[in-house]
Amino acid sequence: MYELENLKNFEYPEIFKKIEVIIQEIVVEKRIKEALRMINFLEEKLPIAQKELYLPLLIKLKFLTFSLFSELEILDFFKKNLKEILKFSQEDILEKVRSKIISLPILERNGFKKELFLVLREVIKSEKIEYKEVIFLVNYLKISSEEEIEEEILIKDEVESKLFFEQSEEKEEINQVQQTEQIQQDKVMKNIKRPVFESSKPKTESVKFIHRLVGPIEEIKNFTLNEFRKLGNTPEEAAHVIEEKINILEKDSLIKKVEGIKAWQNTEINKLYLEIGNDSLKKNISVSEVINEKINANLLTLTTNEFEVITDLNKRLRF
Q: Taking the model in full, what pTM does it have?
């Protein structure tokens, strides 16, 4: 076992080589916990001047721990590092993406696929990446999201791929209009009061309450924003309670802790966090501006402080 604190003087070639060997061993043996520690160590200790040199090594570690990333972290990972990610084999990339999608609730999968597709489209334009390099992933996202037969929608060359990206922009505009109309319709329906029919006969049966035991993982998953705010006097205190609940699971096993982290990622709180982050990326505006928009629209949202606290919490929960 290596001591991270002994790895200093990052500008020295021998230190780089030593860290490279350690990371290679971690990746080959798939030591997830050590990979997470090394990621945190490098991101915290690396001088700015050395970040570019060590970036490929960091990407290898993050690719190994891909399944533990939140949806927002994955989108950001692809957005910032697509060229490096494409150096991995197509099979490995597809396997990582498939596994992450399968781990999501069914109703959220298509939304995540669409967001990842939009990131790919944005990056290949800004980074001038050849379409043929990402066709394999585009095919998968298109096939799995539209649920069509693979042979019928395969993009066979660069021209068709480019056309597909252009057409998707038009579809996106149409979908946005349809979604707006649906939201307005839903609001109208919610305001319609349903008639209540009461029986003329007196009720003789008492109401029976069914008490259901909830395990710690399910308890975490079912946390609402309102419940989160009651966990402490400040968002920091509430986040500490969540973190403690997840850390307790590690006493049983690392697998239990991973399940606890995934349960947290599926909470209402974290979904609001991801939604704010996604809106910030798509609209190219600050998180505080997104939050103000939601407040003005009378939508459920996090505060800026809560968003920052959850960002820090999610970083710590990689361990």
A: 0.49
